[in-house]
Amino acid sequence: MTLLVDVRHRLGDFRLDAGFASDGGVTALFGRSGSGKTSLIRAIAGLIRPDEGRIVLDGDVLVDTSRDIFVPKHRRRFGYVFQEARLFPHFTVRGNLAYGRWFAPRDAVSDSQDRVIELLGIGHLLDRRPANLSGGERQRVAIGRALLSAPRLLLMDEPLAALDEERKAEILPYLERLRDETKVPIVYVSHAVHEVARLADRVVLMRDGRVVATGRVSDVLSAPAMNSGMDRREMGSVLSGVTASFDPPHRLATVQLQSNVLHVPNSDVAEGAPVRVHIPARDVMLAIERPSGLSALNILDGRIETIVEDSDGMVTVRVDCGGDVVHARITGLSVERLDLQPGKPVFAVIKTVALDPR
Amino acid sequence: MDWFTLSEEEWTAIRLSLLVSTVAVAASLPFGILVALALSRGRFWGKSILNGIVHLPLILPPVVTGFLLLILFGRKGPIGAFLDQHFGIVFSFRWTGAALACAVMGFPLLVRSIRLSLDAVDRKLEDAAGTLGANPAWVFLTVTFPLILPGVIAGMILSFAKAMGEFGATITFVSNIPGETQTLSAAIYTFTQVPGGDMGAMRLTIVAIVISMAALLASEFMAQALGKRVNFE
């Protein structure tokens, strides 16, 4: 699967001029609100007709303004999950699920209805009306409805933004299963860094209608481009690992990274399951001696790779801890006091509480 | 209850009224939906003019509407002559003319009601249906129409009630011919014009009240049943 997007569009004073390529998996369009990510995904869906540009999926040209091609939304077969579920109030859950399936081509390959219902855990809701569902349940049904339309591409426009924290935490595991168990490529719009860190394979970072960076999640979320692209507080490292063990009395889990073990708050993942941990750079402390008598559970020893100073006197230090790269945001004063330099061995201290995914 | 036995002529007037009203509503419904769609969704030059023309029968004296119909749809009228020659449809002094007059008089009520419910439809739902693969016609049939159905039914009941009571435009356009164009209202009027006709007028008045009441209850009932089905969030 290859998706090529290159769109220019004016909406009042706002100018969108953005493009990216995706070859499957989850591509996150990431940026602050007003950065143009929703306009971009709406253009991909066919809900906006761009002034100029091209959108091509696997050689199938959907938009090419130079050749006057514009495939209307109902012929694109792109599933779209909106911020609000947009379920049809006059159908039951079953009817809503059947709706997408009905318009899908007969020979289209899609997951079976039973599998989608099982995947999203909505089997007990089938005979209910949308009005009688909770926000999280509605959004799960909306995802199921989009999946059953046998989409060639699944577009998700901040599907969790309208939900409270608890509901978000309820749906995220379903989205992870979706990513891992179905083969539908996904374009995921979000302004929440932890969602992107958990779900995306690739990130397209947007600002003011333009793409400022693209690349792997761990690269983009820690790159200096983040500084200009979004809230600095959200900058950080994304580390991949496997859930190694649980400590039920303390409600903790350990995650085996490349060469370190990280204590994280217990989230409902199975043992041996692959997980990603987003470590906000501002929650990482550095020490030049191994600290003792400290409440923080995670102390990783490593070596400084680079030190980058920002315009406002803060410093981002990149530390390689045996293959697990951690970023720390500290003050310029601390760098001077500790005499930090590239190559110097340091200890990165990370509070487990800072890794709470909620 | 002897006084309440309806004569053959009275039955004819009642049957004719029901026929005329039903045909008027049924025939104007497709046009009503199209015009409501154009007014609610369309962006075109002359939209307010169309809106004005649709609402004209509501504010014009019914006699004026009837006279205009006579000029336009009479045998010699431009539209009437055309329909007569090409389709064999004749309106003047026929029950079809009464139905036309009733349809025109009820049309603003029908359009208004449908348009209001169209305006209230969440267009985001239509977008969602489109991304699921439904073309615009299917979107209308499966999403928009079910959502505006309560408004459509309310409009139909209103225009049916208007047709049952329509008098001025009908009598001006197609006169008051027993068995052909003499509807319930015209029959009541006729009774009041002859000495000793009060009893007959009263009988038909009771019938008119019963029919109107039944229509009102039916619309209430349907609105409730639909309200349960279309449970808006």
From TrEMBL, chain A:
PROSITE patterns: ABC_TRANSPORTER_1 (PS00211), ABC_TRANSPORTER_2 (PS50893), MOP (PS51866). The keyword Heme does not apply. Residues 293-358 form the Mop domain. Residues 2-233 form the ABC transporter domain. InterPro entries: AAA+_ATPase, ABC_transporter-like_ATP-bd, ABC_transporter-like_CS, Mo/tungstate-bd_C_term_dom, ModC_ABC_ATP-bd, Molybdenum_import_ModC, Mop_domain, P-loop_NTPase. SMART domains: AAA (SM00382). One of its GO terms (molecular function) is ATP binding. The keyword Disulfide bond does not apply. It comes from the Bacteria. This is Molybdenum ABC transporter ATP-binding protein. It comes from Mycoplana rhizolycopersici.
